[in-house]
Please model this.
Amino acid sequence: MKYYIVTYGCQMNVHESEKLASICEKMGYTLADKREDADLIVFNTCAIREGAEDRVFGNVGALKKLKKQKPSLIIAVCGCMTQKQTTANYIMNTFPFVDIVIGTFNLPNFEHYVNAVKTGRQLELLQEGDIDESVPYKRTSGDNAWVNIMQGCNNFCTYCIVPYVKGREKSRQEANILKEIREVLAEGKYKKITLLGQNVNSYGKDLVPAVPFAQLLRDICAIEGDFKLTFMTSHPKDLTDEVIDVIANEDKILKDIHLPAQSGNNRILKLMNRVYTREKYLGIINKIREKIPDARITSDFIVGFPTETEEEFQDTMSLVREVKFDSIFAFMYSPREGTVASKMEGQVPQEIKQRRVNELLALEKEIQKQEGKK
Ligand code: 5AD
Ligand code: SF4
Model:
């Protein structure tokens, strides 16, 4: 019996799929080279933008033929998309050949749902629970080991679906994280540890006693061994001077900082509920450059947020020009059902979003050429 996992979205999903893989192997499945050879196909989905969801619908739909040829094939759709009840129902109704539809919080029980398929189709969305420490990972990222340090997000940026599908911020106990990293390093094949969280800078605020993110970083660096440490994603509102100092001072920490700005305009930042201004963002960048001269700074931007004018978009362009990021990701705003921004008046037409994203990416290319960056 063979399994095949199709993963969409961010590194956290890639890492969650490593958990799915270990559950599949525990059940006796081995990895298939391609989906046609599999007896169990799992889609681990992403809900961040409409495009990601459309790709899932297309790829799930394409399995109809395969299921007809092999009726014993089990097809499961899980992850952020299916944590939304409306999308879960839609998938059950539109794709009658899908056997399992579960949400992000059901994932540790995946084995149960596969076994239960024998008694019929499964649709269940659990409410958020404690962080799962029970299921190991089948690591799949070469000499990099992903290590989750927290789940969820409390920020409710008005465009973002994540807080709705991943629940509130919960930090893992520091002792569990340190133990996992020690074990990973003891295997001898990992050279890099990448800490994952929606908002790593607020790690540990919910623990009793609280453990500041800077302390977690220092404690990890104190572990013996030849390894590099990095993390994602940072929110500018929580990136403290102390964390910048730790990055500057610890040789083990890579000088890569992904710091999504989202916009360079204060009115739009406020509407996005980002809780910082352009000036505050630039202040943090200056501090980083001062203390970590070789820092490699990258960012995310959203263009065409509801009511964004041409002038306001030009503020994003000027921020990118000013900071000269090492690289940026630029996204067209995609309304997500249930979020505040999706209900705002003044949605920006698609062709304007397209033009703005092209303009921003062209600027990035030009800067990289001038700066001699790759
Ligand atoms: N539309 C477009 N981009 C989005 N992002 C998050 N939500 C949306 C949305 N609704 C982007 C942000 C974030 C990155 C992971 O995805 O830039 O930093
Ligand atoms: Fe979404 Fe904002 Fe949380 Fe990031 S910080 S996951 S953009 S709500």
